[in-house]
Amino acid sequence: MKTQSTRSIILGAAFLMATSAIGPGFLTQTTVFTDKLLASFGFVILISIIIDIGAQTNIWRILAVSEKKAQDIANEVLPGLGYFLAALIVMGGLAFNIGNIAGAGLGTNVLFGVSPELGALLSGIVAICIFLVREAGKVMDRFAQVMGFVMIALMVYVMFTAQPPYGEAVVKSFVPDTIDLLAIVTLVGGTVGGYITFAGGHRLLDAGIKGKSALPQVTKSSVSAIGIASIMRIFLFLAALGIVSQGLALNPDNPAASVFQHAAGNVGYKIFGVIMWAAAVTSVVGAAYTSVSFIRTFSSFIDKNAKWFIVGFIAVSTIIFVSIGQPVKILVLVGSVNGLILPVALGVMLVAAHKVKIVGDYKHPVWMTIFGIIIVIAMAIMGGYTLFNGIPQLFE
Length: 396
Description:
This protein has a single domain (8-394), classed as Amino acid/polyamine transporter I (Up-down Bundle), CATH 1.20.1740.10. It has helices at residues 3-21, 24-37, 41-66, 70-77, 81-112, 116-132, 136-162, 166-174, 181-192, 196-206, 215-245, 255-293, 300-304, 306-324, 328-352, 356-359, 366-394. By secondary structure, the chain is mostly helical. The termini are far apart. Helix 1 (3-21) packs across helix 12, helix 6 (116-132) packs parallel to helix 12 (255-293) and helix 7 packs parallel to helix 11 (215-245). Helix content is 83%, strand content 0%.
């Protein structure tokens, strides 16, 4: 394989994962929690980045050395566990995708004034077309990269326009006034929870980037993916902080749009439309591709017709949204629920990392195993706490 082609695939996998994470829920969650926690939300972002890197690097390395998809690894750890994990991932992916389609509809509504339902329908068709072309993998990689760069560039402009208190944000990132466990679980869930962390890992496997020799490339790609998503998160946080620090109110029906509108007027509002649409459609692509990758190894029929299952996944998500819609609170909720899937998925991978029949003579670094175990325990405890305490508050 040519070096240039390999580089493109590695970067594409990083952007696929990052843009899968940067969806309507990502934009909504970041804005809602910034409005609530102000500069102290920087601490939540810092902790979530550390957890994200630890979880994702562990998972991608284990996928690479085993040369197997996550569901097959889980079935080897415990028969039937792979089917359970796949069910969790697909259900979470479908729920997220309904929100992604909703976000695409909202983006087109802002840009062109069409109804969110019509915009969602047209955006669903765009996403489907990506998988109908001959070299769908390459098109998907390139689409994710271009949209990722567009989102970050526009976000930088809005951040500087909002004039956030940078010094306060830095200080409170290390010495917060409050620590919000629901926010941490939601951010981790929205970045590496559910299907998202497997998006790039499975893409690398499908492209043939696997085995012990590929570990440096896989590790670099996994950290780059978290870096891309985190840069976007930090810029959005600073933009939102700049607005709320000025005492300006955010519209609860569309808090992220308020940030852009307050920061840059009508131009900012249109920029929000572009970012929301790009974030939504790339997430639709990532969710559909990854969710189907979790079931294609269970059946030769699904594997041969994976493209059509992906198309069907997008079509079902679009039809459900056009029928019932998706409110802001559900976008926050889904991130929290996906955070609950992470301890299961990462726990399974860590067990697999020490089974010779799965990874051969590969020795998983002890520090990574310890780091991973700490994340599993911490996310399980925080996830359990928010399930019984934090999440019900969203609906009071």
